[in-house]
Write a sequence for this structure.
């Protein structure tokens, strides 16, 4: 796996993206040679043809991304794949139509588009079948040997079976507390710690992942040191967990790890830079979206009784309270009898128009005003109500640490996970928040904003 935008991306996905960029370029360049009457080379290299092809390639790649065709590239249904590609091609023709309003010189020839898209419709499914069946297997997966069988190690091993596109595979476990040959979720116990050298010589793992429940007098330090100098990567289960899940595991996290970690925790410089570009984006976004916000406000006013804007006390940066603004999506008496309760995906208190506002994330738009005021960032952990924060801080370790950054309009947890309806959901979202805090950067913020656009356009949510 490699890291792009501070996010772990499987090498197999990167290889697929690059290969399909080449394939899409080839389709439209071949189509140009088939259709253009004049010299195709003059058209491509001197008349701006290659720039037009590039715009088409970008629109196709965006369409594939928005259809989640890189999230899991395994082909579960050929019919569904063809349907998704038809939607992508529709998006490409729509983008070409929009370009005519910007600059007609940027528009690709009609017949080049038609022949190029027909080739895409045939070649991309064929290439995907070949890639999954031959190329992906030929690339192989990195072999992981787990030293220990704590809950984190077992969860990682199970994850690798369900997500082979990660390019990681469990070859087995070594543990003193398990019987040799015992089948576990994700692999088999190959021996105890005393057998580690023999197991490594037999399995030839690329990595040894340490997931021991108890390390005192159990960790084979000198054996691991020898393996490290032989080129085998040794890493904590928590590190592998981050790569596999995109979040920090709180179950094996200890305060001392946070205190002495050089990575976890935002740097003052990073927070200052984020505050600057968040405020700029907030001002630009607020001005550009005024027409949409006026339409949303009118829709809320006409469809339900009560104020258009909803104001609520939330906990922000360094635990300070602030007033958060949203378009009202619930009835005005939503909490009259129950008091403060968590919102759920199919919340019965939500108005008919509020359901659509939530699905499209339009109810969050007034929070741009909070961003301009410096109370929030464009990206960050979602702010919670003081009543919930007090309770969750008592029940969940490290929950207060999420307030070391400004809360955001959108966030890493929001694009990766569902609504928090239970305590367990809140713990998982905290793990995503800690991952974000650990990796806070403009590049990660840009990635989250781009993914949020996909969520808004296609009403897609996290897991």
């Amino acid at each position: 796996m490699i890291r792009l935008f501070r996010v772990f991306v499987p090498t197999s996905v990167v290889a697929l993206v690059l290969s399909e960029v080449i394939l899409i370029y080839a389709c439209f360049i071949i189509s140009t040679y088939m259709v253009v009457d004049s010299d195709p080379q003059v058209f491509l290299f001197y008349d701006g043809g290659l720039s037009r092809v590039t715009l088409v390639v970008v629109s196709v790649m965006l369409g594939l991304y928005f259809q989640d065709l890189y999230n899991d590239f395994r082909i579960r249904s050929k019919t569904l794949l063809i349907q998704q590609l038809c939607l992508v091609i529709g998006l490409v023709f729509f983008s070409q139509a929009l370009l005519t309003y910007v600059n007609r010189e940027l528009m690709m020839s009609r017949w080049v588009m038609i022949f190029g898209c027909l080739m895409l419709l045939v070649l991309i499914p064929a290439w995907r079948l070949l890639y999954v069946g031959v190329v992906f297997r030929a690339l192989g997966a990195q072999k992981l040997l787990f030293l220990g069988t704590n809950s984190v190690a077992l969860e990682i091993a199970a994850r690798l079976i369900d997500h082979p596109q990660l390019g990681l595979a469990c070859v087995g476990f070594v543990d003193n507390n398990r019987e040799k040959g015992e089948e576990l979720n994700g692999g088999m116990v190959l021996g105890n710690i005393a057998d580690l050298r023999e197991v490594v010589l037999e399995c030839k793992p690329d990595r040894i992942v340490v997931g021991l429940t108890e390390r005192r007098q159990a960790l084979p330090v000198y054996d691991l040191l020898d393996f490290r100098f032989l080129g085998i990567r040794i890493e904590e289960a928590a590190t592998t967990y981050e790569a596999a899940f995109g979040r920090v595991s709180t179950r094996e996290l200890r305060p001392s790890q946070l205190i002495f970690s050089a990575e976890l925790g935002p740097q003052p410089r990073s927070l200052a830079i984020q505050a600057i570009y968040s405020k700029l984006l907030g001002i630009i976004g607020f001005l550009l979206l005024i027409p949409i916000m006026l339409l949303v406000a009118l829709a809320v006013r006409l469809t339900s009784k009560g104020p258009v804007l909803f104001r609520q006390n939330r906990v922000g940066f360094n635990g300070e309270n602030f007033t958060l603004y949203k378009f009202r999506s619930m009835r005005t008496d939503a909490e009259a009898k129950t008091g403060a309760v968590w919102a759920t995906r199919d919340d019965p208190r939500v108005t008919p128009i509020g359901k659509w506002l939530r699905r499209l994330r339009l109810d969050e738009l007034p929070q741009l005003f909070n961003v301009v005021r410096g109370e929030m960032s464009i990206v960050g952990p979602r702010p919670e109500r003081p009543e919930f924060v007090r309770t969750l801080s008592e029940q969940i370790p490290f929950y207060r640490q999420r307030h070391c950054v400004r809360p955001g309009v959108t966030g890493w947890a929001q694009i990766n996970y569902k609504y928090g309806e239970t305590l367990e959901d809140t713990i998982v979202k905290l793990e995503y928040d800690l991952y974000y805090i650990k990796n806070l950067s403009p590049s990660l913020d840009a990635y989250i904003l781009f993914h949020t656009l996909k969520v808004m356009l296609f009403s897609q949510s996290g897991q």
